[in-house]
Structure formats: structure tokens, C-alpha cells
Amino acid sequence: MPLIISGSLVEPITRAALGAIDVDGGSTQQQRALLGAIVEHLWKRPDLDLGTLEPLSPSLAAAAITEPEQRRRFLWMAAALELCRRPISPAQIDRINDYAVAFETEDVTLEIARTWINEGADRAQLDILSFFRGWHSEHEETQLLARKVHAHSPDEQMLELFESFKNLPEGTLGREFLEFHTRNEFELPGLDPERNILRTVFCSHDMNHVITGYEPTPSGEIALAAMSFAAGRCEPTWAGLLLSMAYHEGRLTRHDEPVPLETTLSDPAAVELLGEAFDRGSECSSNFTFADHLSMADWQLSDVRARYNITPRRLGLSQL
Fold first, then answer.
1. Which of 83, 146, 172, 204 has the smallest C-beta neighbourhood within 10 Å, fewest atoms?
2. pLDDT in tens, 38-89
3. 1-119: which CATH architecture?
4. CATH 1.10.3680.10 spans which residues of the chain?
5. How far is the C-alpha of 7 from the C-alpha of 281, rounded, in Å?
6. What is the pTM of this model?
7. What is the pLDDT at residue 153?
8. What is the DSSP letter of 143?
9. CA distance linking residue 297 with residue 319, whole number of Å
10. Buried/exposed 166-198: b ≥16 CB within 10 Å, e otherwise
């Protein structure tokens, strides 16, 4: 089930997306890169040529896409495409709003870019986090869900667990988890009291970095989110992809800096990595994203990958 939409709707939704990004003289390189990766690698429709397809206007899109859930999911994709536009454009925001009006659909994702341009990045972050909060628990490490930790103290129990990973054999998931943090000079989840509220999310997220082999670069973060979505095909993993696009392509965290015109998806290698991630996720036998990773800490990483049919990367780790 591609992108949790009906297969028969792939073409009309692609055409509607082309209409949604056709403003200010046309779509941008980054928008076409994201849409092209979705169409070719996630939806498996390389026959759809973005350069020759006729875009659908809001009214025609509403006539073709009639189910409320399918309309809402289209608007989620449109929100991701919106965040790829450089520079961010009032005309782009208004255009996507035209589709929402035609669809008679409201969604918090549509407020992200509008808030950003009108009120700044700090306020826009609240919108994207509000959207993500509905699926926050799905992104937490399973064994840690019920744990309560004082907000002003490190999570000593979690840190002791990670310390025990040093005694695991080389090549195990737990040892590779520690190596990931050492290699990238990251603090272990639970060490910083100010981030304790997200420590269970960071634990799961970093486990998934290790399992998939993507490094925590902007392109690697987007690839991880794309692979997770392709493997899970569910709303929580789509929420994760939109969050990653907002931060690592939209640069929503860079409050005091002008947003550059050249961003992550300006790089053809990053676009190739994104396509590869959709392919690898589609080949997974089940959803690794929300697995009980800690229960597999003593497994060889190769066995964890085999469990979920995670195929090797085509692009080398040093490339991106």
C-alpha cells in the first residue's frame, strides 16, 4: 500500500502535487527531487514523468481524490513539498491552502510554513511538534515507556544499561550503539536532564541509525526517516518523515540564520540516498522502527538486519 494511499490514486495525487508546487514560475529543484523520489522509489511508478504529466487544479484534484483520509494524506505530502521550497513563498502557502479549501480539509501541517513566514521559526516549531506529539509514544523505546525520571537529574538506570553494553561482544547491536555515540561525539540518551523528556525517543532513534547504517548528517537523517516510513507505511512513520524534512531540509531549527537556497536535496547524491532509502525500506519484511531494540542489544547487528530483511547500502558510509 504505497504511502498509505490507494494505488489507483498514485497518478492523480502526483498530478495534484505538481499543481500544488506550480507557483512563482514553477516548482523548485528540491521539490521535484522529493516528489520524484516518492513517485519512483516509494510508489514504484517510474513510468510517471513529472515533466509531461498535466497538473491537477484544486477543483480537479478534489473531484479525483474524494475520500477524507486520502485528502488528508495528500495534504501531508504537500506540506513536506512546501518545506522544500527556497525561498519560502507566500504564493506557495496560499496555493496549498487552495487545495485544502477544495478538499474541505483542515490539518495542523498546513500551518507550519504559514506560521514560519509570519511569526518565525520558534513559533513554527510548536506547530510541527504539535503534529508529531500525536505519535510521540510510538517513537519511544518500548522497554522504557513506563519509566519515570526526575526532570532535573540524569537517568542513572538508563546510563547503567548503556554502560553494560561495553561488555557485549563486538558487532552486537549494543556495542555498535555505543560506537555510534562515540564516533559522532554524542551524549548518551538520559545524560542531559534538560533532554530527559525525549530520552526514550532518542534511544529508539539512535538504535535505528545503527540498524540502517545511516549517519546523523542532514541527508542521513532524511534517509533514515524515509526508510522508516517505507518499512512501516503508517501515520507515525509519516509523521517522523515530515518532522525530519522540517528540520533537515526546511532548516527549521536555524532561528537566527537566513535559510539558504542550496539545501540538502540540492545535492544529487542526497537525492540518490533518499531514493535508496525508500527502496531499502520497501524491501523490509516488517517495521524495524518501533521494535524492542533493547531486547536485541546482545544480537549481532547482522542478525538484527536479517530479522527485518534490511539490505546493504549501495552508497558508501563515507559519501554522505
1. 146
2. 999 989 999 999 999 999 999 999 999 999 989 988 998 998 898 888 777 8
3. Orthogonal Bundle (1.10)
4. 1-119
5. 18
6. 0.85
7. 80
8. G
9. 27
10. eebeeebbbbbbbebbeeeeeebbbbeeeebee
